[in-house]
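Dear colleague,

Thank you for sharing your sequence with our group. We've completed the structure prediction you requested, and as agreed, I am returning the results in plain text so they can be pasted directly into your records. Please verify that the sequence below matches your submission; if there's any discrepancy, let me know and we will rerun it promptly.
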Amino acid sequence: MSSSLTVPAPASRERGSTAWIWLAAWPVTAVFVLSNAATPLYVLWQRDLGFSRGTLTVIFAFYIVGLLGSLLVSGVASDRLGRRRVLLPALGLALAACAIFAVAPSVTALIVARLFSGIAVGTVVSAGMAAVTDVATATDTVTGGADRKPLAALLASCAMVLGAGLGPLLAGVLSETVPGPTVTVFLVEAVLLATAVLTVLRMPLPRPSAPGSAPGSGSWVRLPRVPAGNRRHLVLGIAVFAPGITATSFVLSLGPSLLSGLLGTTSRIVAGAMAFAMFLTAAAVQFAVRSLRRRAILLAGATATLAAMAALVAAVHTGSVAVLLAAALLAGAGQGMGQLGGLSLLNSGVPAARLAEANAALNVGGYLPAGLLPVSAGYLSDAVGLTRGATVFGAVLAALAVAGALVVLASGRR
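Please find the predicted structure tokens below.
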């Protein structure tokens, strides 16, 4: 990869370089705000369009379809063409999703908007998060400073979960306090995405390798993979990240229904606040555990997801909102630590020319169960009731969390 780099000229090059690492994470945050901004608004669309919980989880699943489809190509394309050439079209799709959400007249329109959102998110979790590491690596070269890859992994991971939490909170508050809720929410999000476009245009990114000389060259559309020496790292990350993000996906898709059943409220602010608290926990816990060994972080993540499922089952059987909130916070902690552990392992060993594809591989492993299991739980809840559906989901995911912890324990010390 060429070291040619356009860097800003601040008074302090070191300080300016570090600032760009933080700024490079902003497009990830802006797109993830969109990813969950619709969550508190589904009660409005359900009221106006009249669809079931099963249909709601299908709308959510099309987001996963778009995301996974994007991951099949965006990681490879980003490694070969460069981060900027892949991120800008994705941000354009995100802006289109905002326009569709704002005026959605049907379930089909919601599905299309969620599909576009998923494609944009799939791109930023591969190309966008790799861009943060690229900026860190390039500025290290320019300034001769300390290795900032750990900072890049932390910021990229926190940008993802912070944006995911800000989306439902912003949407919940705006939709309850201003007229034209869907239009206002997505107009504000469009402004955030416009600033992300400007950031990507000015981001000091190195030039990509020529497509023909890129490591791992081959098909442009393929299941993302990592170099052979990093497969163990990928398995460890997926083992904990997948149950964690599946738990938070369940809270996002069916959390408002659970709140309605437990509280008898359809307050969009309450639903948004719960999602925000969940993802704020996911971000905060990463700062709290960043100095621990990666193995310890992954074990703690699996334990948090297991505890989250125990709390979820207890909440639906006792009707306790406090226990449901505890389940959401623990789910956030589980995702946050699984994500940080997985990204840190990949950042530490995968060559820069394969990093976006490696990030895509981690997220494919995480989002597959995150799409399938909540949809299954949604339809099961329609058939047997929300309490039984949530109980079965909690038991299955608890088993996956235990399996993830066993995989980490079997891997030996790092």
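Summary note from our side: Residues 1-12 have pLDDT under 50 and may be disordered.

Kind regards,
the structure core
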